[in-house]
Amino acid sequence: MTSTAPALTTAPEDAVLPGHRGGTDASAAGRPTRRREWTRDVLACLAFLALAGWLTLGLWPDPDTRTLALNPPDQILYEWFLAHDTMLWSGDFSLVTDRLNAPYGVNLLANTTVILLGGLLAPVTAAYGAATTFALLVALNLAGTAIAWYLLLHRTLGASRTAAAVGAAFCGFAPGMVSQSNSHLHMTAQWLIPPMLWCVVELARAARSGTARPRRFIGCGVLFGVLVSLQVFIGEETLFLTALALAIVTATYVAIVRPPRAVLARFAAGLSIAVAVAVALLAYPLWVQFRGPQAVADGVFSPHYFSADLAGFTAFSPLTLAGDDTAAKLTTGPAEYNTFLGWPLVLLSLGLLVWLRRDALAAACGAGALAMSALALGPQVTLHHERTPLPGPYRLLMHLPVVDGALPMRFALAAIPLLAVLLVLALRQAARSDLRAVRVGVPALVAAALLPLFPTPLPTTDRAAVPTFFADGRWRDCATDGDVIVPVPLPTPEQPLPMRYATAALTAFALPEGFFIGPHGPHGEATMGIQKRTTSWVLSEVARTGVVPAINDDHRLDARKDLTKWNAACVVLTPGHARHAELQRTLEALLGPGTPSADVLYWPRTW
Predict the structure, then answer these.
(1) DSSP 124
(2) What is the DSSP letter of 458?
(3) Confidence (pTM)
(4) In angstroms, rounded to a whole number, what is the distance separating the alpha carbons of residues 316 and 339?
């Protein structure tokens, strides 16, 4: 069996930075050529940024009053996370926050927070608001992922600029990535994954050569461990999926190539350095996540529900040129079009896998893509909404620790870069072919398979502005920093709107209840949100039905108990709710007359 993989594990000439090629190659005559090469790379990166900006254009007229139409609740959640991350700069930050779900708090690492991103962009959030930071990250995650893959494919793996651009564009803007951009920042922030893979490639090259300088070998291992640690504070689910896919690809590649044991030993030594660094850096955060306050020991989502439909692989995402809304019924929601590759790309990928079967890297990537796609089918295979008798391979993993925290259908996202590498290898092989039909036909087939998947702008819509009482800091009329304010109605996972009020104040005050994952099941199981207390249940029913109950002394006693339990500084009724009049009558019956301030009514602590 022959393989082109050795060529891919030897750094190409232009993988070396200009001016560091050694000898007399860094001549004046060579500088214009290298300058043109970098110019082309910059243009490719700018093209990715432009595409990402165009896809998110609907958010930019006014991020505060615009929202992603397909998933507003999760946008509110991430905006709250980003606002809370500004506390990193003030030093008043904890992995278990007291600013939500008062008085119990929320374990941030048990939720899909993006702490590193929020911390880096905290100055933007403080100056322009969390909504602006959110819009930036939606675009930058797509473009940044594509740029990072472009540099890896071209500079490290030696692909031509055209092939690298094609592969990188698919990595950054595949249907699954664009779909996840509907408020799932932790899934689209994949720009650290290519640097991690660069470390793996460099460790493999060092292990294969056997003559690597120890300093460089150790440096790659340390960098790999640091990158893994950073990714934990961006998106653990992405890290887990990457690790699983990489393990499958590596095992397949090793089984095909059969490198000497000494090479495997050196490679394992490099990985052990990375593991040691990551364990040292993550020991405390992971303890907080799994054993600390408000930690959860299981997943909150059913793997049977969040599984991919087999028919979804050949469907076109509604967010692509060839898509329409009919395919949306094959998944759980518009943020989970993870498997929608379209039948042309599925057929082409299978054909390319057969054509490149003697290429070890292509075979390994193909095996990884097939394995991750199969795992996405969940514990039981579903076809067009009908459960078949066939068990899915995910059934073997579903009861393992950590695994149950990942949604099966998202395993298919890890197949995207593997398919991209397969496309790059095919374009590279075609360019080297002596047959004109191959040189022209393969790129044409790749273009025909990818063109229908070209993304369309993310749907957006208007949303109400935050009440002036919160936007202008008037909330300090009834509370101080760190106090608890009870908005009416209270925030829930289904209706998290009041969390925007705290977001506008950069989470300077706390809220009871809210949208989060916590251990609030009957026996400490993971739940979304927390069970309502009596008063919040009464207010939510008034908001839902418009029926004001006959308030008696028992209701008033419950209200005093609940407000004391929350340690509330004040209760605030905001404008704009369809049942505003009914809610006001209920609150007046419970607490007496309210105090007007700006555009709200509030009730200061008198209980």
Answers:
(1) H
(2) P
(3) 0.92
(4) 9
